[in-house]
Amino acid sequence: MSDTKTSLFTTIKSFNKNFWIASFMELMERWAWYGIYTLLGLYLVGSTDTGGLGFDHIQKGNIMGNIVGILYFLPLIFGVIADRIGYKVSLIISYIIMISGYYLLGEVNTYWSVYMVFLLVAVGAAFFKPVASAIVARNTDETTGTMGFGIFYMMVNIGGFIGPAMSSGLRTTYGWKIIFVQAAIVIGINLILLLLFYNEPKVEKPKNSILEAIKESILGIFEALKDVRLGILLLLMIGFWTMFNQLFNTLPNFIEDWVNSASISNWLNEKLPALGSLITQDGQVKPEWFTNIDSLMIILFQITISFFVIKMRHINAVIRGAIIATIGIGLTFYSGSVWFTIIGTMIFAIGEMMSSPTVSSFIALITPKGKEGLYQGTYFLPVAASYFVTSIISGSLYQSWSDKLSLLKKEMAGRNIEMPEVVTKEEFIEKGSKALNMSISGFEKQFNLKAETIDWTTVKQSFTDLASSKSIDINQIHFPFSKNEYFALAEQKLGMSHWDMTNMLWETYNPNKIWFVIVGIGIFSIISLAIYDKMIIRPLEKKAAK
């Protein structure tokens, strides 16, 4: 017993300065990333009168799905580059790119500008991802590796909890743009820490060129995928990760659209006003706090869950975790009940804690000796692929089945109630300038559209007068009208309160039916993994036992 305790404390004390710097930098990088990403879906489709961009869910799905998919593919290349130019130089490049990207993300407001700037952030994050892990690996050994990566994983989740918590408070007090400034500052702290305290040890760098190394890396991945055990496992895990992604890419929007959390909000503001002011807004609990339950659960219970998982076969743990996660994510979308959302997220977190870390461990178990790095390098392939699938579910599928604005437009049209088009300021400027044959900058100057406050009544009159003087038809040009304004006008014309209208849409269109797709993907993954175990893994285990 004493040996175990001594070993534990001795192991922790044995980690050098670079290990702790890398672990802290991971915490800060996750703080910046999740401080943005957890709230990004809300920001992208948010009403323009509250600082959101007013995008539709198809645009949101493309930005949050496709770009993150690219992010998880890039480390296969960037890790090879980092080995040759050095980790410190790689991190400097990564941080400069991320600082620029995060700051600019709060300054752009059109679809393609947001898409390209977020892609810039992804490139910086992809440069960071393999380097931080490599520094930890370089500063641990066979006896300290498990503890080292356990601490590293804990840092990931601490950062993943702090980031959204900080952004949630900041965006309520100062508006949306401050969360992007926060992310840039957090990465700036990482850059200062790197420059002042990280000393890169002298190591022999690979002698082949970067292009040769990238080619070898890609060919090695294809070689590894020829292993049936690995290739099929990674293919099946696409479903699991697609289901997991809904927690960040789809659930916050579903909560904002359909979950009435007024009872919890009222209780918090009455009994715990300090906490209520942080996590509630406009009489509702902010959606990002429901998602953050997942990170909090991992921080509190990962060690306990891991203890129980150790006693299971690896593949059994993955399958059982997938079953629990499927039940949890299904509950969050099944009902508009706030308690289903909370309990479902907690159940999902338990499944995630069982499955996610175990997959990497299982890959290690089936890895031929001497190919550990190669096989572990394939871990992010199903994660990357899953984001491309997620872009469809959280994008076009949600837009069609579950987006409250889309369903309300359909309802108003079905009742023959005339409503204005929902149009952003940027869309008006783009179409208005084109109609008047003016440059965008000239159009903005003509109608003083860069002013901090805009008198839209004056703008409408001036725009109409100018178009009339030029005999230009502007009937197809719609003036800015926000999502919130559309909801308010619809409530007025229907003679309903906001939540009465929401309940009417729920009962009419069943927006929760998206849960069939999400849970269906989970069930398919569970059945496929069970077949994989029976047909491939168990026969190999029996063969090895003989």
UniProtKB/TrEMBL annotation:
The keyword RNA-binding does not apply. It comes from the Bacteria. Keywords: Cell membrane, Membrane, Transmembrane, Transmembrane helix, Transport. Gene3D superfamilies: MFS general substrate transporter like domains. InterPro entries: MFS, MFS_dom, MFS_trans_sf, MFS_Transporters, PTR2_symporter_CS. Pfam families: MFS_1 (PF07690). This is Dipeptide/tripeptide permease.
